[in-house]
Amino acid sequence: MSKKDKTVPTIACKVSRGMFSTEREIFIPADGGREITALVDERSVIEPKQPAPGESINGRLKVSVVEIDKKSGLALVDLPQPAFEVGSRVKVSAKLLDL
Amino acid sequence: MILSDREIRAAIKQRHILIDPQPAEEQYNTSALDLSLGEELLELRPLEELQQAEPAGVERTLIIDLAKVRMAGLLQAYAKPFTRESDGSFVLPPGKFALGITHEWIELPRRSKIAARVEGRSTLARLGLAIHMTAPTIHAGFAGRIVLEMYNFGPYPLRLRPREFAVCQLIFERLGRVPSGQIKTTYKGQKSIR
After folding, report:
1. pLDDT for residue B175
2. Is A69 on the interface with B (CB under 8 A)?
3. pLDDT band (50, 70, 90) for residue A1
4. How far is residue A22 CA from its own chain's centroid?
5. How close, in Å, is residue A99 to chain B by CA atoms?
6. Which element (helix H / strand E) includes B49?
């Protein structure tokens, strides 16, 4: 998907090509300085263009927001597909979100 | 509760299950929906192939530390397209592992209170074809094509024709309550929480 879909929350991420041509690999900075990576469908990503092989571009990933803790500035979000390091539910900086 | 074909059809019509392309009537079973194989199949490079990239006399010892490996990077580096026959099919030999992907794209919106399980088909299993390993659950909120971990346990090579046969089935189950998190509604119209 290349057009911005404003009906769902999104999170800023780095996007590169996935294993299958319809997949993307996304990178999200997570709580505690970790980086979360996941392979997701291209339709779950808003990207200005299709990344070239080996290229990493700025994009946005469609997510579901479970909870936002305004005190800590952290948000608990559900990714459309599980991350490699954890499951589908990850804690991220709420600043990365666009609701 | 497992959804019947009538309930699956109704859920698709009401957009509680999103699927693209729309399923044909033959894809419905009494309590499941058949999905077909997509156009891509991947395999992991065998150790011998990786060793060929080393200088003469150097043997590669490959041990993947599951606690430390950056899985996405490893899979991208070690996966390669499966050899495709001139007629567009793939031949999966006995004892071969491959990664496939469904032709259909699925989304299970959280509000729908529906999750699913991907399962093989008994007919194909009789020939030794397994289509997933250990992780059949498609969680509520999932969006994407389903990756299939395929293995031929049988004695014969199997020809796989993308989009031409039902490779797996999805069994839909209803959740008791909507999963936690309704921030989208609460913050609707707000640009950001910043």
Report:
1. 95
2. no
3. very low
4. 16
5. 5
6. helix B47-52
The model's pTM is 0.85
* A chain contacts of residue B194, beta-carbon cutoff 8 Å: 94-95
Is B76's CB within 8 Å of A81's CB?
no
- Find, among B75, B92, B74, the residue nearest to B83 by Cα: B92
Residue A61 near residue A27 (C-beta atoms within 8 A)? no
Bridge-based pairing of strands B114-119 and B137-138 is antiparallel
CATH class of B5-50+66-174: mainly beta
Rounded CA gap, B144 and B19, in Å?
9
Residue with structure tokens 């707000």? B190
In chain B, where are the structural domains located?
5-50+66-174
Q: What is the ipTM of this complex?
A: 0.81
Residue with tokens 């058949």: B34
